[in-house]
Amino acid sequence: MMNRSAISTISVFIGGFGLLFALATAVVLGASSGLSAAVGALIAIVNFILFGWIVNRVVGGSVKKRAALMFLLIAKMGVLFGLIYYLVTRQWVEPVAFMVGFSALVVGVLTGSFSYLKSGSRSAGRES
Asked: Residues near 39 by Cβ (< 8 Å), separated by ≥ 6?
């Protein structure tokens, strides 16, 4: 189940990898690329937190509320795609560096999930 603790843990991992990727990009490709990677990582964190917030409400809501929240989830994706399109086409970010930062979402979700599950199984073992 995706609870607040899981969302917080995974968000920290996304942020950590985002910072690491942004710093590495800045060192290898320069400050402008590093800033683009940092913007990608920031958008990845906000995207994940909003996703977790919506999913928690979908799981616990009524059928009518679920339908509205599912629409909100689709709208969030549309806004995300529109924002990325706008940033890239206006050349406010460098596309490759931006995606390096945004890729922290995938790496952070994978490693954060494993970490959360591992810490949860340890604490469950101590209680029994």
From this structure: 87, 92, 93, 98, 101
Q: Which domain holds residue 114?
A: 4-120
d(CA 51, CA 39): 18
Q: How far is CA 46 from CA 117, 118, 127, in A?
A: 22, 25, 34
Q: Give the pair of three-digit tokens for residue 105.
A: 């979402």
What pLDDT, on the 0 to 100 scale, is given for residue 125? Answer: 43
Total domains in the chain come to 1
In a domain, 125, yes or no: no
Mean pLDDT over residues 98-107, rounded? 97
What CA–CA distances, in Å, run from 13 to 50, 75, 112? Answer: 16, 25, 5
Average pLDDT over residues 29-50: 96
Examine residue 14 and state whether it is found in any structural domain, yes or no. yes
Mean pLDDT (whole number) for 19-46: 97
What is the value of pTM for the model shown? Answer: 0.86
Greatest Cα pair distance in the chain: 57
For residue 37, pLDDT over 90 is answered with: yes
